[in-house]
Amino acid sequence: MAGKKEEFSCEMYSNKFFLLCLAGGAVACGSTHTLVTPLDLVKCRLQVDPAKYKSIFRGFGVSLREGGLANIVKGWAPTFIGYSLQGGVKFSGYEYFKYAFANMTGEENAYLYRTYLYLAASASAEFCADVFLSPFEATKVRIQTTPGYTSKMRVAMPHMMSTEGIGVFYKGLVPLWARQIPYTMMKFSSFEKTIELLYEHLVPKPRSQCTKEEQLVVTFTAGYIAGVLCAIVSHPADTLVSKLNKEPGASIGSLVAELGFFGIWRGLVARIVMIGTLTGLQWFIYDGFKVYTGMPRPPPAEMPASLKKKLAGKK
């Protein structure tokens, strides 16, 4: 009803707010990454053994012939747990760092230099999140790309630990950072900017006048666009992560030399389809979680009244 003040389940930037962000991020990332496990599996196999799998479609065919449906969902458990942890830390961390950095710089500077703020907040959040993801990513890739290896996470992780030590779980952390940090910086900054542009130029009415359902459609659209950009930026590092977890004794330099320029971009089309859909769904689920739990949802960045006043005074 017009004029009725909306009630929220928590205060903006309270401890409960950040805990709910953590839960929303876990739901958004854990569910979506698990959903695309078959595509991710074929992409990883194509990256580490292009002679055998050749293309995405051939990769699906070979994988199905070799082990049926069970063969294309290998690695779902470490995917679900790893990306739930990573998603929770990433989304809640982004909200926290964005809030903290904005307070450090002041309201006006936070608006004027908001893109840099988005980049710094997302990079900080992803740096922390990947520490939680790395052991499960290493396990996932080992299960998916090593012929004859167990498909059970509860067997794979103890075996990897006993035979190669705890370092095997963090062997791919640096290339994981190299993949995920640029990806997340692009994911959050391009999403924030796209949301601004959509409401400014495409949506025919202000966000405040849109229904929650209409707002969620805009969220998904902005998320999908951000996802396509993310896939391109992070793909070379994604290829290296797959190769390193398949061949833990190799160095990054030797793998770059082995793959060459075109090899490092192999699987990009599949990654664009996967990450575009994934990112759009993640933003949709995360924003939908906020709506469902009654959380406050900050609008797109708006120029502070004090800055408007200063600019008006200069005219």
From TrEMBL:
Keywords: Membrane, Mitochondrion, Mitochondrion inner membrane, Repeat, Transit peptide, Transmembrane, Transmembrane helix, Transport. SUPFAM superfamilies: Mitochondrial carrier (SSF103506). Gene3D superfamilies: Mitochondrial carrier domain. GO terms for biological process: mitochondrial phosphate ion transmembrane transport. It is found in: Mitochondrion inner membrane. PROSITE patterns: PROKAR_LIPOPROTEIN, SOLCAR. Pfam families: Mito_carr. It is a multi-pass membrane protein. GO terms for cellular component: mitochondrial inner membrane. One of its GO terms (molecular function) is phosphate transmembrane transporter activity. Transport of phosphate groups from the cytosol to the mitochondrial matrix. Belongs to the mitochondrial carrier (TC 2.A.29) family. PANTHER family: SOLUTE CARRIER FAMILY 25 (MITOCHONDRIAL CARRIER PHOSPHATE CARRIER), MEMBER 3, LIKE-RELATED-RELATED, SOLUTE CARRIER FAMILY 25 MEMBER 3. This is Phosphate carrier protein, mitochondrial.
